Amino acid sequence: MVLESLSKALSETVRKILRAPLVDEKTIKEFIRDIQRALLQADVNVNLVLQISQNIEKRLREEKIPQGFSKRELLLKIVYEELVKILGGDVYDKVKLPNKKPYVIMLVGIQGSGKTTSAAKLAFYYKRLNYKVALVCADNYRPGAFDQLRQLGEKIGVPVYGERDATSSVQIAVNGVKKFVNEGFEIIIVDTAGRHKEEKSLMNEMREIAEKIKPDEIMLIVDATIGQQAYIQAKVFHENTKIGSIFLTKLDGSARGGGALSAVAVTGVPIKFIGVGEKIDEIETFNPKRFVGRILGLGDLESLIEKFKLAEYKPTEEDANRFLSGKFTLDDLLTQLKSISKMGPLNKLIQLIPGFSLSLPDEFQELSKVKIKRYSAIIESMTKEEREKPEIIDRSRMRRIAMGSGTSIRDVQELLEQYKNMKKMMKMFKRKTKLFGKLKGFTGV
Ligand SMILES: Nc1nc2c(ncn2[C@@H]2O[C@H](COP(=O)(O)OP(=O)(O)OP(=O)(O)O)[C@@H](O)[C@H]2O)c(=O)[nH]1
Ligand SMILES: [Mg+2]
Q1: Which residue has the higher pLDDT, 337 or 20?
Q2: Dihedral Cα 191, 197, 198, 203, nearest 10 deg
Q3: Is it true that the peptide bond before 102 is cis, omega within 30 degrees of 0?
Q4: What is the Cα gyration radius of the chain?
Q5: What is the distance between the alpha carbons of residues 34 and 36, in angstroms, rounded to a whole number?
Q6: What average pLDDT does this structure show over 142-146?
Q7: pLDDT band with cut points at 50, 70 and 90 for residue 373
């Protein structure tokens, strides 16, 4: 798996704390020291490591253990959250699929960082999500750059634009984007050159291309094997052209990947993808929460975190009002699904309605964990438009959504059906609650 050594060290540490008969000061100190050691070995910046350990200790001192939880569980939750934080935290939750057409992605990065390989991986990734994708090779420095991309494009059936003997890479980029926009392509990925005599001329060229083609997203490609040095690279690029996302390559087998990940996350730019091998399908979307769950090697971690969330969940008046206003969009459903487990927030909300002691109907109760995951993935694979107007989801959109979420068309249909029922239920609740007059019960929850 990615970052094998870090993962091994961390999961070992976690197992140790799980086995410890007693979680006292000494065990905790040792636990934190083990984590420090693992992070340092993965080339995470020393100051960052110190900061994490201080945060963990401070939070352990200050946070009360919620009822029904043990100190051990609280400790794990804090460690999980602090690690997620250094990898970008909730930034990922805001990362969406391109929802504008055409959508132009410009790749930048230094020589050998993996731009061309990643361009093809991205094309493959989006093509599988049923987008009409094209590639532009704006690298006229390296002979063979065009051929490299063309061969990759051929493999995945994606057209590649390039020009031989052209003198201006800016012009190639402009021509390529124009051509593919005219031909109705939805995602156009522009590969650029990394080979320049000096940094300044590279930055100038990137700026010039960006000014001319006005990409919707500039994606920085960074080689993870350079470890925490990745910070300087990300910073310099970010200052010159506004970077919208990061693709971290060569995380497979890189012992310093943890350093690279945490270093680029400091820029505040979301890490969208990671490269985990040379092959075209060796690309993964990056989600700090999922990632930390994996490297901590604790299968149950996610459910533990969910349990905490649930215990901490307090519906706001706004939640309640929206819930009852009948404006229950797929985005609302997604939010609910994310915090729901069996006796989730929906139930809590309903119990707040004065005069309502009834529990939820079966179809709410029976949302199993697997289904919640599946439903969330399905909604996450929808565009903004689809979430707002689910009625536009026809069969071809269903197919795309199913592929994007790793589910089947039937699953998508089922989700939409469930959603419709829930929406109906909301309306019914609304009518009923009217009978009970004002919803005073919601305040001061
Ligand atoms: N192991 C591994 N190798 C990768 C990954 N991504 C790219 N590479 C390799 O890195 C090397 C450089 O990749 P390129 O895509 O040509 O890099 P580039 O940034 O386009 O290079 P220039 O165009 O010369 O600036 C190639 O050997 C790729 O196979 C990855 O995720 N894992
Ligand atoms: Mg290249």
Answers
A1: 20
A2: -30
A3: yes
A4: 25
A5: 5
A6: 86
A7: confident
Ligand 1 mean position, distance from CA 195 (Å):
13
Asked if residue 277 has its Cβ within 6 Å of ligand 1, the reply is: yes
253-279: string of b/e by CB count within 10 Å (b at 16+)?
Answer: ebbbbbbbbbbbbbbebbbbbbbbbee
Pairwise CA distance, residues 202 & 371, whole Å: 48
What pLDDT, in 10s, does the model give residues 236-295?
999 989 999 999 999 997 888 899 999 998 888 999 999 999 999 999 988 888 888 888
In order of start, what are the domains of the chain with their CATH numbers? 4-91 (1.20.120.140), 95-287 (3.40.50.300), 313-442 (1.10.260.30)
Query: Residue 180: is its pLDDT beyond 50?
Result: yes
pTM score of the predicted model: 0.72
Does residue 194 have a pLDDT over 50? yes
Distance 404 CA to ligand 2 centre (A): 27
Cβ of 257 below 6 Å from ligand 1:
no
Instruction: Take atom 26 of ligand 1 and give the residue whose Cα is closest.
Output: 114
Would you say the CB of residue 116 lies under 6 angstroms from ligand 1? yes
- Please tell me the distance between residue 207's alpha carbon and the centre of ligand 2 in angstroms: 18
